[in-house]
Amino acid sequence: MAIHKEQVLSKVNEKIHGQDEKAFGRIAKVVESCIQIDCQQQDTSQTIDKQTSQGQESSQDLDVIMLDEEKLKPIEEIQQRKEVELNGFFQFQKNCVWYLQIGQPIKQIAQIPNLALCKVVPISRVACLVIGGAFDQSSSKVFNSVRQITVDGQISFKAPMNLGRSTFGCSLSKEFHAILVAGGNVGQVQSTSRCEIYDIQKDLWTELPELNEEKCSISICITPSCHAYAFGGLQRQDRSIKLSNSIERLDLQQWQSKQSSNWQLLSVVLPIEGVDFGNIIRRNAETGQDEIIIFGGWSREQLKRVFMLTNNDQDCIERVGLMDIENQHQIDAMSDKDFFLVSGCQISDKQHGFDFVLGNSNLFAFDHYKITFSRISL
C-alpha cells in the first residue's frame, strides 16, 4: 500500500472541488516539503542499538521506580527546548509497528507478538515509543514496558511506566518533549485514575495527580500554556460500562512548582459522550488565545463531529466555553468518521497553516485558517 504525491493531491482536490485554489496550493506545498525531506540531515544520535537482552516484558506487579526529584527539569527549562520534529507517522496494528511517510510506501518496521491495546508515540524523525498495552484484548494482563523502535527496526527498552495499563489516554507534547498518559485499564474490568508524565530527554516517568474519575480511552491534550486537558472516556466498573462527556484540566506549571494543583472537573462538558477524540491546538490570530479543536472519536459508532473548546482566561474556569461547530454551521464536520488513539503527533507546516493528523483509518489535512478537515486516502 503506497501513498504517492499525485494520489495525495488528487484526494485533497476532490474535497476542495476546485472552489479554493489557494487552499489546494497550500496543501500541495506541504506535500512537496514532506516528500523532499533530506533524510541525511537526521540526527544520527537518535539511532539506537538493538538490545535483545532486555526482551522480557515488564508487568504491572514490578516495583515502582523511586523518582529522583533533582533530575526533574523545571518547566521554564523544558519550555526552552526545541520542538520535536516529525516527518512520519507510526501505527500499531496486528502485532506490527508500521511507518508511514507522506509520498512513500507504508512499511513494517517491527513485530511485537502477544501485545495489544498499547500506544505508539513518535519522539523524533527516526524513532517512536511503544508504551504499555496488554497481553490480549481482555486486558487480563497489562504491561508497563516502553520500547523504543527506530525506522530501521532497531529496538531497545526505555524506563517503564510506574503503572502497567492498556487503553489509556496518551498525548505527545512536541514543545515540552514530554508524553502524558492518563487512566486506562489495569485489569480485565478495572480502570484507574492514575496519571504520569514522561520526560523524553531524561527517560524519566513522574507521577501526576489522579483524575477525578477512573476511566480509559481518554483524549488528552497539552497546551502551550502548560495546561493538560482530559476529554471523555469509558468508565468500567464490574460489568457496567458508561461513556463520559466530562472535561478535566490540570495546571502543569503549578504542579511542577509544588503548588497545590489537582485535576479540576470543569462545569462545561462535551456535547456528546465518547472516547478517543482527536484534538489539535489552534492559535486564534484575532484574540491571541489557544483554541482546542476536538474532532472524531467513538460513541457507539465512529464520529465525525467537530467541536471547539475556547478559554479566554486560563485562570477562570467559568469562562471556558464549548461550541458544537457542526450544529452552529460555522464549520463542516469531518468528511469521514474516524477515531484517534494518540494526540499531539500531527505533522505541522506552520508556514502554510496546515497539520497532517493520522486516525485509525484515514490521514487528514487540517486547515488552521478555515478550520476544516480534508481526508487523504491511504
TrEMBL record:
UniProtKB keywords: Kelch repeat, Repeat
One Pfam family hit: Kelch_1
Signal sequence range: none
Source domain of life: Eukaryota
Protein name: Kelch motif family protein
